[in-house]
Amino acid sequence: MLFFSRKPKINTKVPKVEFSVGEITILVRRLATARRLSLRVKSVDSAILTAPPRVSLREIKAFTESQKEWIEAAAARVGAAANPFAPDARIDVAGSPLLLVHRPEGRGVKRVDDRLEVGGGIEHFGRRVTDYLKKLARETLSERTRVYAQLAGVTVKQVSVRDTRSRWGSCSAKGAISYSWRLILAPPAVLDYVAAHEVAHRLEMNHSPRFWAVVERLYPDYGPPQRWLKTQGSSLHRYG
């Protein structure tokens, strides 16, 4: 007698799986008809990865990590100019609302009360606002870093600002700290928390319980700004 066995059905109704690449949440969707891994960026902070049923989560994460630069570039394109720096736009700078004003006859950028007045041709407007914010971010973060470094009893070799997407700050083993200039668009408590966080790495180059104890000593109420970054931080990349 011959027995015929059916191939076991693949259960594609698996629980929702999510993980993060930097600040971008990756939702894994398994399809029985999928033949390969594919990625689609939905927004500035989310993407969907479609995978065949039998591909392991480890393989999925390895593939996604290999595509990190592409994912971040695609997310940047999606979010580009969502809130452009343009005349009559309103932005929050270090917790204060500012109206962007074009003054063609003027020169440079200056803050007047609740306005940011930008001189020169309109074609340079956005770049000049960005340059102003980067300079302000560097000055503000340098000052707050000095405050927390003194409190921690450590030295910081250098403070710089960049337009990073995967992290808000970083600290090298040699004591150089780099921040995202976009922190100047966040509430001041958020900027302070990140400064304290990075200075804490001068004592603990890890995220161990000892590290978080240092953060708490430097900035006791770090919970709310930390949650703000997780839930609203991606919105800062939509400016400019």
TrEMBL record:
Residues 35-231 form the YgjP-like metallopeptidase domain. Gene3D superfamilies: Metalloproteases ('zincins'), catalytic domain (3.30.2010.10). Coiled coil: none annotated. InterPro entries: UTP_pyrophosphatase-like, YgjP-like_metallopeptidase. Pfam families: YgjP-like. This is M48 family metallopeptidase. It comes from Lacibacterium aquatile.
